[in-house]
Amino acid sequence: MFRPLLIVIVAYLLGSIPFGYLIVRSKQGADIRETGSGGTGATNVSRRAGKAAGIYTLVLDALKGAVAVVWAVVFAGSTSRAAWIVTAAAIAVIVGHIFPVWLRFRGGKGVATGVGVFLMLAPVALLCAGVLFVVIVFFTRYVSLGSMVAAATIPLFVWLQSVFVTHVGDVRPLLVAAIVGAALIVFAHRGNIGRLAQGIESKI
């Protein structure tokens, strides 16, 4: 019982590392949460501190999602509960990014961290969602809209991947991770949804 709990706690704490906040703080001495959308993610960081800082944030945020999944897979072992433990860790790292304990639970949108998670869990599904993201951003110039639509379709692509690409005996843990992760990411974009509805959302 202690090991699964430890795996999930470590995943959450890993997700809570606010790379975007730290990069902007070290570079400009400013709080990225006081800029633009108020998030600590790559898009907001790039607007405040430049494209290089945004790229570093993107890579590091994705890396912590991937590391959390690898950590969970290694330490969950091969028990019957292993897939569910990995699912819990995958959700926890996204929760940590959106609600980081170090920043009084005000973090980013969870997109890059989700990319890292599903790069490990469902790469084909992630690729399909990524193509959709690129198409939407190309035509609308709204990163937030592309991110939400891509996240919302991840569960569908996960199911399609399990049926047509990599047949999984029990796809439920992966689907739960995809559904909850998508819900968290869309929830984190609630401010963006309001700005999109008002026509005042920032474009790239």
- Give the strand content: under 5%
* Major sheet summary line: none
Low-confidence segments, given as residue ranges, are none
Helix content: over 70%
Q: Indicate the structural class.
A: mainly alpha
Counting DSSP H or I runs of 4 or more residues, the number of helices is 10
Number of strands: 0
Distance between the termini: 46 Å
Average predicted confidence as pLDDT: 93
Give the tally of structural domains: 1
The outline comes out as globular
Radius of gyration: 17 Å
What is the H/E string? HHHHHHHHHH
Describe the structure.
The protein is an all-alpha fold and 204 residues long. It has ten helices and no strands. The protein has helices at 2-15, 19-28, 42-49, 51-76, 82-98, 111-121, 123-140, 143-164, 172-188, 190-198. Helix 4 (51-76) crosses helix 6, helix 7 (123-140) runs antiparallel to helix 8 (143-164) and helix 8 runs antiparallel to helix 9 (172-188). The chain is globular, with a radius of gyration of 17 Å. The protein starts with a helix and ends in a 6-residue tail after the last helix.
Topology, element by element:
Blueprint: H1 2-15, H2 19-28, H3 42-49, H4 51-76, H5 82-98, H6 111-121, H7 123-140, H8 143-164, H9 172-188, H10 190-198
Helix pairs in contact: 1-4, 1-5, 2-3, 2-4, 3-4, 4-5, 4-6, 5-6, 5-9, 6-7, 6-9, 7-8, 8-9
Attribute tags:
10 helices, 75% helix, mainly alpha, 204 residues, globular
A few lines on this structure:
The chain has ten helices and no strands. With 204 residues, it is mainly α.
